[in-house]
DNA sequence: TTGTTTTGTCATGGA
DNA sequence: AGTCCATGACAAAAC
């Protein structure tokens, strides 16, 4: 399947791609599809800021709102599951904070074996709802991991998840596990370590990092949902700086949550920038190709012009030669003898008078004239 | 299966 | 100092 274009956020993609690059040369039907999808966006939000300003965000974080936002879209089943858990008085922030505290004993409860069904919250439509127990009791919290699809394929990681089994725990795993590139064996259970790993640069996890790039977005989507923010990734990306900062300020988000939101925004912005950049590059290439074409045409024109001029010059030279000999054939010296054109030349003085003179004199006079001209310059 | 193109991401530098 | 944007480079996905 196409892992980039799962059903979850496709509609909002249209807003991003469809409007920004209507003339994109390599536009493909799927982009058009996205545009068609847009009116049915799960949130129905065309202007995220307007939604934001009109809302009490604390309220927006509530289970009911999440349910409202997702209930009309079958593809949001995972979120509905979370909503069920939320109805039971779950406070995401509190739990999140608990997770951030070293030595929190919430972890072990997550690994309880009483879950009979496991599901993976991630995403992309292919997500898994796998029945049968594959719980890994020996894993620590981190090892349970928030790996989305892509990492799941490395090692089949699943999330505990019936109504007894806390969906909020799963949520927190999402919130906590930012280590896109870690395979489960690399994960360490403490939240602090997650934070550290999150901060590591790509070269420290080079082996894994590019493996996961294609699915970072879907992870972002999962985590955005886990944050209970009723904005799609695209909305997070496209809202104004002020709105974004206000959102960060108004909600008591943990450092981890803020970091995730900023990353989602950064990646989204950069994606758009890359698309614009590529479009510009393509246009630049097209323009240069056009320039080359025009210059080649111009070159051909100049070539023709040049050959035309050469022909004219030759004709004029021939005419001149003919006239020259014509003149000499009619000239006579003092004794009435014909003048030899090999010994004499026709000379035009600067005053405009024309006369014939011996060649050797003409040469010396020409030298003098040249000197005069150089001095004048 | 292999080669090419497209896409998302990160790092980096400039504004 | 922090933020945003543009772009080269890279790797995975798509073709």
TrEMBL record:
Signal peptide: none
Matching CDD domains: bZIP_NFE2-like
Annotated GO CC locations: nucleus
Family the UniProt entry places it in: Belongs to the bZIP family. CNC subfamily.
GO molecular function: DNA-binding transcription factor activity, RNA polymerase II-specific; RNA polymerase II cis-regulatory region sequence-specific DNA binding
Organism: Cyanistes caeruleus
Residue ranges of domain BZIP in the record: 260-323
Coiled-coil ranges (or none): none
InterPro entries per the UniProt record, alphabetical: bZIP, bZIP_Maf, bZIP_sf, NFE2-like, TF_DNA-bd_sf
Domain of life of the native organism: Eukaryota
Lineage summary: Eukaryota, Metazoa, Chordata, Craniata, Vertebrata
Family annotation (PROSITE patterns): BZIP, BZIP_BASIC
Protein name: Nuclear factor, erythroid 2 like 3
Entry keywords, A to Z: Activator, DNA-binding, Nucleus, Transcription, Transcription regulation
């Amino acid at each position: 399947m196409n892992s980039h274009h799962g059903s979850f956020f496709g509609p909002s993609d249209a807003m991003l791609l469809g409007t920004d690059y209507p003339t994109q040369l390599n536009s493909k039907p799927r982009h058009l599809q996205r545009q068609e999808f847009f009116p049915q966006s799960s949130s129905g939000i065309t202007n995220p800021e307007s939604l934001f300003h009109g809302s009490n965000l604390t309220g927006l974080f509530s289970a009911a709102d999440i349910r409202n936002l997702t209930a009309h879209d079958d593809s949001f089943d995972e979120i509905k599951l979370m909503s069920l858990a939320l109805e039971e008085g779950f406070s995401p922030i509190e739990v999140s904070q608990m997770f951030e505290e070293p030595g929190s004993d919430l972890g072990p409860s997550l690994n309880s074996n009483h879950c009979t069904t496991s599901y993976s919250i991630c995403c992309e439509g292919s997500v898994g709802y796998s029945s049968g127990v594959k719980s890994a009791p020996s894993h620590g919290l981190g090892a349970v991991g928030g790996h989305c699809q892509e990492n799941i394929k490395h090692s089949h990681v699943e999330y505990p998840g019936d109504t007894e089994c806390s969906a909020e725990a799963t949520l927190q795993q999402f919130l906590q596990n930012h280590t896109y590139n870690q395979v489960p064996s690399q994960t360490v259970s403490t939240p602090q370590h997650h934070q550290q790993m999150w901060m590591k640069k790509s070269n420290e996890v080079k082996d894994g990092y590019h493996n996961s790039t294609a699915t970072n977005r879907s992870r972002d989507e999962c985590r955005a949902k886990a944050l209970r923010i009723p904005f799609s990734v695209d909305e997070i990306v496209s809202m104004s700086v002020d709105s974004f900062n206000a959102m960060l300020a108004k909600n008591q988000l943990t450092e981890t949550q803020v970091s995730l939101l900023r990353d989602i925004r950064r990646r989204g912005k950069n994606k758009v920038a890359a698309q614009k950049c590529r479009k510009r590059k393509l246009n630049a290439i097209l323009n240069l190709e056009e320039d080359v074409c025009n210059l080649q045409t111009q070159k051909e024109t100049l070539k023709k012009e040049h050959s035309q001029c050469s022909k004219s010059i030759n004709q004029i030279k021939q005419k001149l030669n003919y006239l020259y000999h014509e003149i000499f054939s009619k000239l006579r010296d003092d004794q009435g003898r014909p003048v030899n054109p090999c010994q004499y030349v026709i000379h035009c003085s600067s005053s405009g008078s024309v006369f014939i003179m011996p060649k050797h004199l003409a040469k010396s006079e020409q030298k003098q004239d040249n000197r005069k001209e150089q001095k004048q310059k």
